[in-house]
Give the backbone structure.
Amino acid sequence: MSSNWRWQQLVMRAYYDAYIQDRLAFEKMLETEAYVILEQANTIGADKAMAQALKHINKADTELVSQDLKEKVFDYGEKLFQSIGAQSSVEMYQARSAERGAVLDFIDYPLNNRWWLEDEFKKIAMFKSEEEKLTRLEFIKNYEFPGEGSFYDNISSADAMHVTSKTDDAIDFLWENDGLSKKRLSTQLFQFSPTLEYSGLDATSDYLIRVSGYGEALLRANGQRLQPTKYEKNFEEFKEFPLSKDLITDGKLKISFDKPDEEHLNWRKQSRVTDVWVIKQ
């Protein structure tokens, strides 16, 4: 059985999954702790807070976890190359390209937002005033935490509480820079026309629906098209739609998106949704 390539694939996948789960738990913890450090920015200064937070989250690159599992993955990568010529790496096994099953080349790809934070901190360091820096850091720190009575969903995360749509298509992943994108992890996964459902909203309060993604977002709330007050179309920009309490008299909300006419566009250029906030006003 150990020489059977089908069995080798299964075992390699099992070790790969176990390694990723261990890394994910560790790297998510580091990111959470980095945001705690950013909470001190008002007292220690923005620049110092950014330096300390980045140093902490980058421990993922120096305090390595579960290397025994990683070694097993590479062992089975070699066995598969010997048994059926499986090219699971561009450098090691001359895979045609990184996009063509070179899974070994991405085994240590960040599972937290440290690459994105590094780029964001560089931008913030160029701000002229401390107030501007602190405002942006506050936004970053609370990106996924809009406050009590409000909601955030990363559309493609297993942690998303309100997403009811599913996708089984391999084109729901942003591919750029040979798979080494430095965008937020939530930006790199998406759905074209997701649906989200909420209950228990405050029927006496208005809300603001914020959407991030790319291109158009033809949003409906309980079946009614909403008009945006902000409509940015690039990655990691935002669209905002005021939601009147008149549309949620029972405290329930269903968000859906009409699909724009983009059949003339390659799927890589078509509109998509990555993040959705429902923010109590």
In short: Residues 154 and 275 are 5 Å apart (CA to CA).
